[in-house]
Each structure stands twice: as structure tokens, then as C-alpha cells.
Amino acid sequence: MFSIENNNIVALVAAAKEGFAKAYAPYSQFQVGAAALTATGKIVQGCNVENASYGLTVCAERNCLAQGVISGEQAFSAIVIYTNQDKLTPPCGACRQVIAEFLAPEALVMAVNHNNDTKQWTVNQLLPDAFMPKDLLEK
Ligand code: THU
User: Fold this and answer.
1) CATH for 6-137, among 3.40.140.10, 1.10.10.10, 3.30.450.40, 3.30.70.3270?
2) What predicted TM-score, i.e. pTM, was given to this entire model?
3) Residue nearest atom 10 in ligand 1 by C-alpha distance
4) Which of 31, 69, 92, 93 has its CA at 20 to 30 Å from residue 54's CA atom?
5) Which residues' Cβ are closer than 6 Å to ligand 1?
6) How does pLDDT run across 94-115, given as a tens digit for each residue?
7) What is the pLDDT of residue 1?
8) For residues 25 and 19, is the Cβ–Cβ distance under 8 A?
């Protein structure tokens, strides 16, 4: 796993918590915040955005990475997911695929909650043998 400086972890958790406060989750009432560290050292954040057409909901992690791309960043070295649930929230399958697109296999994915409990994974642990851009080359 790539190591991330402690001050960056602290800043990521704070940004993910900020994202959490902006969540639009009137249907599930399950607010999620996310924050990612870009390869250039910037922090971007996201939250889940739900929709009356439930399937159009977009998770915090994917909105966070999209925010990063919009801000001109396409490489990230860590992503943090914040909820206020005692059970830490792992990224869903769709988010794992999008995380694998933009973070290296050894990059850090960390869940944190209101108690400051944490769980850490590498991208590769969450999605081994991911379908990657290179898999499109031999079409
Ligand atoms: N959700 C996320 O934003 N990230 C996750 O990792 C898990 C699920 C959101 C989607 C939906 O708005 C709500 O949580 C309940 O599934």
C-alpha cells in the first residue's frame, strides 16, 4: 500500500466529512461524503446525490472523482469515505470500478466514521483483476 502522510489523512477525513454534510439523500437518508488526494497534492470532495428515479443516484466516491476530473486532475493517490454509521461503509461495486480507473492498484482507500474508526484497503484488494483501459486495446 502506498503510504500517505498523516497530515494528508487528517485533511482528507475533514474534507470527506464536509462532503457528508452536503449529501442529497432524501430517499435513503444514508449520507455519504468522500474526499480524494490528487497526484498534485490537492484535495477534492464529493457526496452522494440521489434522485426520485432511484437508479440515477450517484455515490459520493464517483462524484468526488468526477469533481477531481472537472478540476483538471486525472490521477489520485488516496480516497476516503465518511459516514456516520457505526459500521464502516466500503465502496459499492460501481465505485470500485471507477476508483480503479483513477487510482493505482496500491493506492489507499479508507473508510472512516463519526467515531473515527477506520478501515483501509488497497484498490487491488477491493477489485482484483479489474477491467482496465489496457483491456480495450485488443478489440
Ligand atoms: N452510497 C455512496 O454514496 N457510497 C457508497 O460507498 C455506498 C452507497 C450511497 C448511494 C445511496 O445514495 C445511499 O448511499 C444508499 O445506498
Assistant:
1) 3.40.140.10
2) 0.97
3) 59
4) 69
5) 25, 28, 30, 32, 48, 50, 57, 59-61, 81, 89, 91-92, 95
6) 999 999 999 999 999 999 999 9
7) 86
8) no
